[in-house]
Amino acid sequence: MAVNPTGAGLKAFLAEGPDEPVTMLNLLRFVPDGGAERYDEYIAHFRRFAGKVGAEVVYFGRGTTPLVAEPGQEWDAVLLVSYPTRRAFADMVRDPGYQEGTHLRTEALVEATLQPTVPR
Prior knowledge:
Residues 37-109 form the DUF1330 domain. The protein is an alpha+beta fold. The protein has a single domain (7-117), classed as Alpha-Beta Plaits. The protein has helices at 7-15, 35-50, 86-94, 96-99, 102-108, and strands at 22-30, 56-62, 77-83, 109-117. It has a 4-stranded antiparallel β-sheet.
């Protein structure tokens, strides 16, 4: 299962409005035995590049026992990141320095959902 954006996905993402603001919802399921700690390493790396494009972590929290969910639908953590534009997100994920640390995210996760959201 893919846990990082792909070229085709980024192209479609940008086609929806490259200059519009977007908040990315990350639903995260960690690899057992060390995935959460590895993701914390990724977050430290991510923050160094997020600020360069004007992104801001809105919320990062660990999941607890779900109130409403089918078995297997619970998530280990939720991350919300606000970007000034879709292009800013794409610029960050294409940055070679950022790319050097994406292995931390890949190694930390067994499953992830990265859902763009827009204000209503």
